[in-house]
Design goal:
The complex is a heterodimer of chains A (249) and B (325).
Chain A (H helix, E strand, L loop, with lengths): L5 H11 L3 H9 L1 H12 L5 H40 L3 H4 L5 H31 L4 H4 L3 H23 L5 H19 L1 H4 L3 H13 L12 H25 L4
Chain B lengths: L24 E10 L2 E11 L2 E6 L6 H8 L7 E6 L2 E2 L10 E4 L11 H11 L5 H11 L15 H13 L5 E5 L7 H16 L3 E6 L2 H5 L4 E6 L2 E7 H9 L3 E7 L2 H9 L4 E6 L5 E5 L2 H14 L4 E6 L1 H13 L1
Parallel strand pairs in B: 3-8, 3-9, 6-7, 7-8
Antiparallel strand pairs in B: 1-2, 1-4, 4-5, 9-10, 11-13, 11-14, 12-13
Helix pairs in contact in B: 2-3, 2-4, 3-4
Classes of the chains: A mainly alpha (249), B alpha/beta (325).
Chain lengths: 249, 325
């Protein structure tokens, strides 16, 4: 391990040797099967059908609302949670580094593993769905990648914080994803404004700017990006504070 | 020797410190409780340079005390300082402090060398390579340094943890049961290392529940029982009082019945029995004579000894006796 980001390198190495990274890949690859089914079921699709499929059921309906938070959940709760459970965290905290640095490096390590997997899956879905029409759907790539990056960054920061408060962060996270993000925020408009899913979807829809792809009450891109940025800053700050004050044994 | 109950009036006389000696580590009326369970109860002592043994039976509060000293857990009340400064919230103190934790877990996918290098890099040391090799050599782990830590024996893990804690050459080294799981050769090597660190002027605190172990490296000891300070001071003075109390010693050997028969004839032994695990349990009032006699008897009768250790119950009884005095 070389360079300044020793904890980030350690984190990546831990993830790449763990089964959890396969779980994340398994979660992210689910839409690829739907894409294959689409192309088998509809051998000669129209362009708008492909665009709508990629945007609405796949990204907005499945990826942003359920798969992406679940993928972020698996690794972000393990980043510090496993260190606490294995009692290896003192090897990091008993060093002349600020707690903020430890949290940030762990967070970056989580993103550097989760994001490429998610992006790889999204690009595969796009490739399979749009095969033969790649030029007509190329404009969808950037919105998908930017929105998924924002979503993973926000969800990872939140779950990393939760992992410092509870040894059952994975269960709490699953409950949050399915009840808060997937159920309540969908049916209770007031909750939408405090839903990461909503901002992820808004970024995608706004950047795509396709009249066929709509989202009820979509926030402006700048609003969504600022909200996500503030959420990340606050949760990372809280995680550093928690790490500074918690008891480690 | 200072009695814990009678010497608690800092700064005039801090238990554990000789007159005029400055404390590197100071615990001032420190308590730690978890709900209704009191792990450490209102202890005050200071630790200066040299090797100090933190002695007590399992569950005495030794690990809690060490974890509080190194800032991993906050005391429920009282104050802990290192050179006069509180440690929690001050990461820069860790440039001067090393901990060998009682927990065995080390990142299993790293090699021993990578683990020590990780510690060196996190300490932001210059010339990492030299420092890492030096630390590995100090614990005599050069031959196994490129093997994965997950493949190490317990003794090897202990030694590589020591290397990780020593790589930045700390002034203060806290070691929680560092000899656990080590074989006699490893144990002798670590004991030599601990003594050398003490002679070098470092403040070394080594916890153990084995009296004979502590005797080999520490002149000053702090005895904790049930979270309380039982005794603080010179090892020999405390040892004399401990030795005057009955001990129960557990022995593992290849021929336990032959060993038991040999022990019965010894003056140092009051009674012998064999437990359900085929181990010999001997009662003795003169523990020093017992420890001298056992190897001789084993050799005379062709018995191979695997373990000679005071039982936890015996230790608890002996240490409790110190508190009750």
């Amino acid at each position: 391990m070389t360079g300044q980001f020793t904890i980030t390198q350690l984190t990546i190495r831990q993830f790449l040797r763990a089964k959890s990274v396969l779980v994340v890949a398994g979660i992210c690859v689910i839409p690829v099967f739907f894409a294959i089914i689409l192309r088998l079921a509809v051998p000669d699709p129209r362009i708008w059908e492909i665009r709508d499929f990629l945007a609405t059921p796949i990204f907005v309906g499945l990826f942003a609302s359920t798969l992406l938070p679940l993928a972020a959940l698996v690794l972000s709760t393990a980043a510090l949670g496993d260190e606490i459970e294995d009692r290896t965290l003192p090897y990091l905290t008993m060093k002349p580094s600020s707690r903020l640095r430890i949290v940030v490096e762990k967070y970056i390590g989580t993103l550097l593993v989760t994001v490429p997997i998610a992006w790889g899956a999204l690009l595969t879905v796009w490739l399979v769905s749009s095969w033969g029409f790649l030029n007509d759907t190329r404009d969808m790539i950037l919105p998908m990648l930017v929105a998924s990056l924002a979503g993973i960054a926000a969800f990872s920061a939140l779950f990393l914080l939760i992992s410092l408060y509870s040894s059952r962060a994975l269960l709490i996270g699953i409950f949050y994803v399915f009840v808060w993000e997937s159920l309540l925020s969908q049916f209770l408009p007031g909750i939408r404004t405090i839903s990461i899913r909503h901002y992820t979807q808004s970024i995608f829809v706004r950047l795509l700017d396709d009249p066929v792809v709509l989202l009820d009450g979509a926030s402006r891109t700048s609003t969504a990006l600022i909200t996500v940025g503030v959420l990340i800053a606050v949760t990372i700050g809280m995680a550093a504070w928690r790490l500074r004050t918690m008891n480690l044994q | 020797m200072n009695d814990a109950n009678s010497a608690s009036s800092p700064p005039v006389a801090i238990p554990g410190l000789q007159h005029g000696q400055t404390a590197t580590v100071l615990l001032d009326e420190v308590s730690k409780w978890y709900g209704d369970i009191v792990a450490v109860s209102n202890v005050t002592f200071g630790i200066g340079p040299g090797v100090t043994g933190l002695l007590g039976p399992n569950g005495a509060g030794k690990s809690t005390a060490l974890n509080m000293i190194c800032g991993l857990i906050a005391p429920s009340s009282g104050r802990i300082t290192i050179d006069g400064h509180a440690i929690r919230g001050r990461p820069d103190v860790y440039r001067r402090l090393g901990l060998v934790s009682e927990h065995e877990t080390i990142y299993p996918s790293l090699t021993g060398r990578e683990f020590v290098r990780l510690n060196a890099r996190l300490q932001k040391l210059p010339d990492v390579k030299t420092k890492v090799e030096l630390a590995i050599a100090m614990v005599d782990m050069q031959a196994a340094a490129d093997r994965k830590v997950g493949e190490y024996s317990k003794g090897m893990r202990q030694r590589i943890k020591v290397a990780g804690a020593l790589v930045h050459d700390p002034d203060i080294l806290l070691m929680d049961e560092p000899l656990n799981g080590t074989d006699p050769v490893q144990r002798a090597h670590l004991i030599r290392l601990i003594r050398q660190l003490g002679r070098d002027g470092k403040t070394v605190v080594v916890s153990s529940h084995v009296l004979e172990e502590v005797e080999r490296f520490a002149q000053n000891i702090i005895v904790m029982v049930n979270g309380k300070l039982a005794a603080v001071g010179d090892f020999r003075a405390i040892r004399n009082q401990i030795d005057a109390h009955d001990h129960e010693i557990r022995l593992r050997a290849d021929r336990p019945r032959v060993l038991a028969g040999a022990l019965i004839g010894s003056d140092a032994v009051r009674g012998v029995r064999i437990d359900e695990h085929n181990r010999v349990i001997a009662d003795t009032r003169d523990v020093r004579a017992f420890y001298r006699a056992v190897p001789k008897l084993a050799k005379e009768h062709g018995v191979r000894l695997y373990e000679v250790q005071a039982t936890d119950e015996s230790l608890a009884s002996v240490f409790s006796y110190l508190v009750e005095r």
